[in-house]
Amino acid sequence: MAPLLLVEAATLLSNTGNGVANVALPWLVLERTGSPTAAGVVAAATALPMLLSGLVSGTVVDLLGRRRTALVSDTLSAVSVAAIPVVDALLGLNLGWIVALAVLGAVFDPAGLTARETLLPAAAQAAGWRIERANGVHEAVWGLAFLIGPGVGGVLIAAIGPGSTLWVTATGFVLAVAMIAAVRLPGAGRPERPPSGLWRGTVEGLRFVWQDRLLRTIALLTMVLAALYLPVEGVLLPAWFVGRGEPARLGALLMAMSAGGVVGALASGVAGRLIRRHTLMVIALVVIGMALVGLATLPPFPAMIGFAVAIGLAYGPVNPLSNYAMQTRTPERLRGRVVGVMTSFAYAAGPAGYLLAGPLVEWLGLRTAFLVLAVALLVATLGAAPLPALRALDEPPRYPPAPPGGPTNRVEERVPLNGQYAPATRRDAPRVQGRVRVEQLWPPAPDRDAPVRG
Hints:
Elements: H1 2-33, H2 36-64, H3 66-90, H4 95-127, H5 131-160, H6 162-181, H7 198-211, H8 213-244, H9 247-274, H10 277-296, H11 301-315, H12 318-329, H13 335-364, H14 366-384, E1 409-412, E2 416-417, E3 420-421, E4 437-442, E5 452-453
Antiparallel strand pairs: 1-4, 2-3, 4-5
Helix pairs in contact: 1-2, 1-4, 1-5, 1-6, 1-8, 2-3, 2-4, 2-7, 2-8, 2-13, 3-4, 3-6, 4-5, 4-13, 5-6, 5-9, 5-12, 7-13, 8-9, 8-13, 8-14, 9-11, 10-11, 10-14, 13-14
Subcellular location: Cell inner membrane
Family: Belongs to the major facilitator superfamily. Drug:H(+) antiporter-3 (DHA3) (TC 2.A.1.21) family.
Membrane topology: Multi-pass membrane protein
């Protein structure tokens, strides 16, 4: 149980620091420049290196090892974030400094995120948890971090200013390093079968994701959601509350979204037993779009809180379901690369969304720009709901998660074959109509990656 607790504690601490920064950095830019476009430029400049580093982050994890990558990533992130208030005190910050230091900090985030997420199946195995339960808790911890972070950020901005508030972000990263340093898990060290190179390993991960219909669909859907939703938190809501001089309300609204996300993620494990995963994903997507349109009308603050909670509740199951798809459709040796590639798809859309949001606000006004993005997201989610590829969420796992170095397990299904039943070695083996499938779950055979079907 201890490794799972440590991984989740590191996730909580690291992302709490990021949650504080999500409030402090846009506020700092708007305070110094008064320009929503400048805030959009900083957000886009931060997202672009995350795209590039996110694309190769999974390969880095598979080359260096999961634990080591997480340690290095969070250490470098702590240093880069702490440099912002240091430079402010010594030289004074301008937009160029803010962009440069924000970019420096963003470069390291995807590798740390990928490393901690690839540790999750082994940590869940060590704790004796089902992977669906671990995914729900992991995403709930993620949401809890952004529930705590923005609230703390709003309070600290009002008390000590946005620059000094970034010390809290650096502290979160330092504490996360301490937690990961104590993790001991099979497969957390240097891998036995690393990629043959950074570029070749990344291409292998990209090819795997693109050839899998479900993973490809989730990756593209994630891009659309990120492009249309991230500017809401990074540009539109900060611009609205900065104009009204209400940093605490911005923090409270982001906390409400995160609170809904925590509950939604925790409930996803239970909901997944009551309804099909595909149905749960469709409901989540449609509710996200509808609730964001409600929020975009910028109603009175209590109503904004209600819409924010609804967005969080609906978004809660999306990431656990995406994680489940990655974990059960990817061989262990490729897991880091696939997680990194899937994450980079979200980062890919960020720069476009951020760069669009600022000029859109100055051209159309905040309310109209907000409605345009929200309606576009609703149209996208309604269009994604009937996609046949999402039904693959209910297919039997191709690669049931197991920790590296664990015992070799063989699964032989007991299914009808010419009117007879083949013997079964596991009652919980996935059933495939009309044939017997034998899977070597762990480790994969040296001459193949896919399960043998006969």
